[in-house]
Amino acid sequence: MSVVFRLESPYRGEYQLHRLTFGAGDPVVSVVAGIHGNEVNGVYALNLVAGVLRMQPPRGTVHLLPCVNVFGAEAAQKRWPFDDRDLNEAFPGDPEGSPVQRVAAAVVEATAGAVGIDVQTGSATVHEVPHARMPEAGLAHDLGRAAGLPVTWARPAERLADGLVGAWHRRGQPALALRGGRGGALDLEEARVLARALVRVLGEVGVLTRTEPAAPGVVTTEVHDHRTTVGGFFVPELRPGDRVRAGQLLGTVRAPLGGTGLEEIVSGAAGVVLAVRVYPVVHARELVVRVATQP
Ligand SMILES: [Zn+2]
Fold it and tell me: Are 4 and 84 in contact (CB under 8 A)?
């Protein structure tokens, strides 16, 4: 383990960006988690992958950055605690900029020239099924499919322009995101699913021995967002990963006091539930269910 960047911190130990490196030479893969401090599924998934890499040295190099926003992780916070900035919005960063910009620049530097994989979760209020987000073609696309997750979401390049994945993409590095779970909660099964997906991707790149391909999930380019028209208490009728038909009831918005039904949320398409709002108190126009369509 090496410290690839440090930042002085006035009242506590300095910030350190840790990188675990396995193997040497080409190809190079960098896997990053914990850009959002409370997204612990990714942090744990990378630790599981570290265990695999200790047993099976890679043919090539694998860099793991298991927890970028360690101060956020300690405080159970998504954002950088001192100035409440979103690290993911600071990319590509600036070595002379604000603390989050300097951390972001250090992450880009520490992962230069590699295939880049960013592991995140949904927010603290939205639970996502483990899935891959990647471009519609190219190496990153093939790697996203090889991940073998329940949903594989191919997106136009301009929809992948944000955050670390966008910064990698603009530097010409193949880049994809693996996501699953929600902020603020460790789900062991989801973390294991993400870890197995990462091992499959490393097999596809050729740094590890290829493992058995997973049962193919839904590969989609289209996701239907379902939003409320009224505020209230949202009661979901399904879980992330469930299959739904068009017209199926996804959940109801109920009156927060008394529980009267206010609105039924009905699926606009057949597919697999990508994300479900799990914190029930919602305002009007809030996203409550995402369905990845089955082409
Ligand atoms: Zn995140």
Answer: no
How remote is the CA of residue 253 from the centroid of ligand 1, in Å?
26
Q: What distance in angstroms lies between residue 42's CA and the mean position of ligand 1's atoms?
A: 10
CATH superfamily name and code, 2-218: Zn peptidases (3.40.630.10)
Predicted confidence at residue 198, as pLDDT, reads 98
Determine the distance separating the centroid of ligand 1 and the alpha carbon of 35, expressed in angstroms. Answer: 7
List the alpha helices (DSSP H) in 137-209.
139-146, 163-170, 188-205
DSSP 159: G
Distance 102 CA to ligand 1 centre (A): 19
Q: How far is the CA of 59 from the centre of ligand 1 (A)?
A: 30
Q: Domain residues of the chain, as ranges?
A: 2-218, 222-293
Residue range 263-290, pLDDT digits in tens? 999 999 999 999 999 999 999 999 999 9
Kindly tell me if the per-residue pLDDT of 211 is higher than 90: no
- Give the residue-averaged pLDDT of 242-251: 97
pTM to 2 decimal places: 0.96
If 0-12 CB within 10 Å is exposed, 13-18 middle and 19+ buried, where does residue 56 land? middle
For residue 161, the CA-to-ligand 1 centroid distance in Å is 15
Distance (Å) from CA 249 to ligand 1 centroid: 28
pLDDT of residue 231: 97
For the chain, the average pLDDT equals: 96
Please identify, in words, the CATH class of the domain defined by 222-293: mainly beta
